[in-house]
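Help wanted!
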Amino acid sequence: MSAMTKAGEPRYRRIAEELRTAIADHAYGPGGRLPSEEALAAHYEVSRGTIRQALMLLRHDGLVTSRRGTRRVVLHDAPVQDFAEMQSFARWARSIGETPQGTVIRQAWHPSNPDEQHHLRITPTTPVLRVLRLRHLSNRPAMLERTTYPEPVGAIVEPLPPDTVSVTEHLERAGISVADAEHTIDLIRADPEDAEHLHCAVGDPLLRERRRSTDPAGIPLEWSEDRYLPGSIAFVVHNSLASTPLTRHLNS
Amino acid sequence: MSAMTKAGEPRYRRIAEELRTAIADHAYGPGGRLPSEEALAAHYEVSRGTIRQALMLLRHDGLVTSRRGTRRVVLHDAPVQDFAEMQSFARWARSIGETPQGTVIRQAWHPSNPDEQHHLRITPTTPVLRVLRLRHLSNRPAMLERTTYPEPVGAIVEPLPPDTVSVTEHLERAGISVADAEHTIDLIRADPEDAEHLHCAVGDPLLRERRRSTDPAGIPLEWSEDRYLPGSIAFVVHNSLASTPLTRHLNS
DNA sequence: CAGTGGTCTAGACCACGGG
DNA sequence: CCGTGGTCTAGACCACTGC
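Answered by r_m:
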């Protein structure tokens, strides 16, 4: 929504946007049927292939079904949350009407440990920047973030003011953008450090999200372990036969 | 791996499978570069479009990168877990070498409550089948599952023996298959019923997964709330600019 | 049976990366 | 500058759904 449709955007993305809006405006459903691909192609004056690309986006977002033989069916209303919002705590907070804050508690360069070497795919000799950051949601502590950056990214993060609200947005301005991320979600107990900063008791349960982000070339940009106070957050995943990004693992 | 390449499978899927195997055999990387689309098209004797469909699959699984201007780069080794395994507790358990078990504790038809009506998209008058099921992993209690089925599915589930290991597989045999699912993951405290069956204390933290599954036409097949003992499980999500199924929500 | 989405082809041009 | 992937076209045939 908002931002005028950018001219530089590929045609199929703009069409997907229009369809999203139409669906959000209940032009078809839910439960309603979309026009056929043929009809959409005629309407937008593009080839069927382009329409299919647009529909693929809606499909992966769980907005419409797709079955051979039948018109596409509109599912529930749009969740409308994008990659940028998942990637950035600050952006997410703003999108739900909360005020994000961040405070760096500790930050220093260290020789990387084996765990970091594995996740960031670096060699043992390389130093990394470790940052401990407390995140607030509208003045209440919500999450404690332990992030490790490899050298080039760390060099950009290090000089930022300790109360920087969005590190991600600074990195983007520096030309560093995230293309992929892998998240592991489980439950953990607060250690003394967690307890101190999140104002909870040692041993209290926390929701843990470990995350590795990579750039478009597949080079790791950060390895982070975030611990959320319970009650403040839930993670929502959509998956389908078409794309299955969610897996279940034994905690080891 | 294993199963002979089915002839009925579309060409691009078979190619994706071959590429997966090649990657798993470290034919290129990790860090290595895939042949160009042009070269792959020539090798498999298909058009570039078909190759791109195959590569799209690997892309969504986070197996390879893709950037204009450069060859695709192989990322980490294959996670190899598919939709079927995420959808079925029994299949997942077997895939990690554990023995799954299930016991129905309670099962009965009820008039649907507003929550169920919303998630299953049914009218207030429709009855639903509520099932309380305890899941074991190699003889240890691992998860307590509260599932609600709408009428047609419930009618199939009801007569199953209480110790049925895989309900999903029975449904498939009856021609009912899941195409989409939405999962919400958060943290919750054990209530007396949880505590009794999971052999934990009331108030102990549990990892909760709420799930709605729908069939290819978008019709809800089940609404379930699963509570896992901590330490036994983690959820892993992969997302990218290309597809973002993961979102973060305020718990309300 | 007609209509629809799934697969596939053989081209084309462009935007970007890296030498 | 060249090679690469990203976008797009205009066709074709098939598999399936639902009448």
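OP: Thanks! One thing I noticed: The mean pLDDT of chain A is 84.
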